[in-house]
Amino acid sequence: MASAPENEKNASAPEKKTLTLKSMINNEEFVVDEHVALQSVTIKNMVDSDCAGDVIPVPTISGEILALVIEYCKNHANPSASEDDLKKADAGIVAKDIYTLIDLVLAANFLDIKGLLEVTSQKIADSIKDLPHQDVREIFGVENDYTPEEEAAVRAEHDWAFEGFP
Amino acid sequence: MEVTGGKDLISSLPDDILVRILSFLPVEFTIRTSILSTRWRHLWKHNLVIDFTMSTYRLLDSEDYSFVSRFLALHRAPKLQRFAICRSGCKGFVPEVELWVAFAATRDVQELEIIFYDVYFEVPLSLYAAKSIKSLYLSGVCFSSPPNFNGFFLLKDLSIGFSGIGDEVVEAIVSSCPILESLTLQRCSGLNKVKIASRRLKRLVFDETELGELLELEIEAPNLVCFKYQGSVVTFCLKHHCVAEVELLYRMFLRTDIGYEREFQEADFGYVKTLMDDLSCVKYVIFPRLIVGVY
């Protein structure tokens, strides 16, 4: 461990290309290695089509969420990480409250990062699967616009799925 | 910019993300979301995953399968990522299997899993029309004759368990899956002298339990990296000696010349070792509670 910084100094490797991602929500900036950022298909398309300037603005994603996304991309850009390591790291990233997860899934969708979209969707599913309807409505900001009669009719259509369910 | 992060974002989750979240939930839960609001009424019908194996619901113990057919009749996604159903405690043949497999095949299913534990169902012919299939897991199947089909060109992962399948059927299927990477045969009956020839195969798991039925296992798979065998002692023939990871778990019983089983004895280790001489790359053999190094 002690010799690691020295090795870095001595290394004559070509300078790594970096990109700066900037959250347009709170103007927080993140400098990341290009190969890390390119795990986002959205960013890759921007870079490939020469649409990316020195600073890539990321709309609708806060610095807090962007930091999680970058952590995910760093982990998955590391060629020496084993499948087990990645699983553990992913579990750590999605060990968040439901509202953070919803922001994260939107970020993964916007930046087009398939793996992050999958693990976050799975985690959201796990978090809501034992909740009553009222809580699920609250989480997804859903307003019940059925009349009681309509709701009863929808229930009756699939009575088997509601068996034993209040 | 309208959306500002935090709780304001949540009502803006697009349908395709909601449908993706639903794909990780048991079928009955996804249907129940239809009463959340009118927007949610039909969302579940667009799920790319139909997985009844996640269901904790007691209907999977009932004899009535009409709910599956009703579900499929309402489903609207033009393509399916996965169709899976699992049943145990079945009292007889379930004719609906034919319809389920045909449904999945016409929707270009990529992962198909049909698991019955205590009844054999005849492999529906529509299975062979599922050209998009990448992963196939069948249990409780009966293959009566070698399939006459062009092949599963995209199939990478094949697992067949608790099934009746003959030597020639295994050979026919394996030879018509050009990119097959993983093959698992678990507790299948009807296998005596099996030849597995596959160029791309990386992983082969053979779990044989019908004592003494299997006599010979010939493997011709130049890219095999992992071979696991569990069962009675049989003759192996590995055409390519470059397998990195071999695990052999022999049962404590050996077939003797006159055809009955006796308990495994210390002297048998020597016999096993002679068999192993053919497997120059074997790292270890696992006997129950014993590990014997092979050099």
Question: Your description of this structure?
Answer:
The complex is a heterodimer of chains A (166) and B (295). Chain A is mainly alpha-helical. Chain A folds into two domains: 15-129, Potassium Channel Kv1.1, Chain A (2-Layer Sandwich), CATH 3.30.710.10; 131-166, no CATH class. Residues 1-11 of chain A have low confidence and may be disordered. The longest helix of chain A has 15 residues, at 63-77. Chain A contains ten helices and three strands, in the order H-E-E-H-H-E-H-H-H-H-H-H-H. A three-stranded mixed sheet of chain A has the order 2-1-3. Chain A is elongated. Chain B has 295 residues and is α/β, with parallel strands linked by helices. Chain B folds into two domains: 13-128, no CATH class; 143-295. In chain B, 17% of the residues lie in helices and 27% in strands. Chain B is built from six helices and 18 strands. The longest helix of chain B is centred in the middle third of the chain and has 10 residues, at 97-106. Chain B is elongated. Chain B: This is F-box domain-containing protein. Chain B: Residues 7-60 form the F-box domain. Chain B: Pfam families: F-box, LRR_At1g61320_AtMIF1. Chain B: InterPro entries: At1g61320/At1g61330-like, F-box-like_dom_sf, F-box_AtFBL13-like, F-box_dom, LRR_At1g61320_AtMIF1, LRR_dom_sf. Chain B: It comes from Actinidia rufa.
